[in-house]
Write a structure and sequence with these properties.
About 60% of the residues lie in helices and about 0% in strands. By secondary structure, it is mostly helical. This is Cytochrome b-c1 complex subunit 8.
Length: about 70
């Protein structure tokens, strides 16, 4: 048995550049959503942000110390 080609129709979905309210729901009440997420998961937020803030502080302190090292 031979293979027969099958014609397919492609369907392309696109958003109109004139439609402005596509992502309005994402930005609606953003501070409220962030507050809800952080208050719900404050332990996870602390465990994530704690090391990041610590590393950033350490790097800033190290760079400042390195800049002032030539004075001694």
């Amino acid at each position: 048995m031979g293979k027969q080609p099958v014609k397919l129709k492609a369907v392309v979905y696109a958003l109109s550049p004139f439609q402005q309210k596509v992502m309005s729901g994402l930005w609606k009440d953003l501070p409220g959503k962030i507050h809800h997420k952080v208050s719900e998961n404050w332990i996870s937020a602390t465990l994530l942000l704690g090391p990041l803030v610590g590393v950033h502080t350490y790097v800033q302190q190290y760079q400042e110390k390195e800049k002032l090292e030539h004075r001694y």
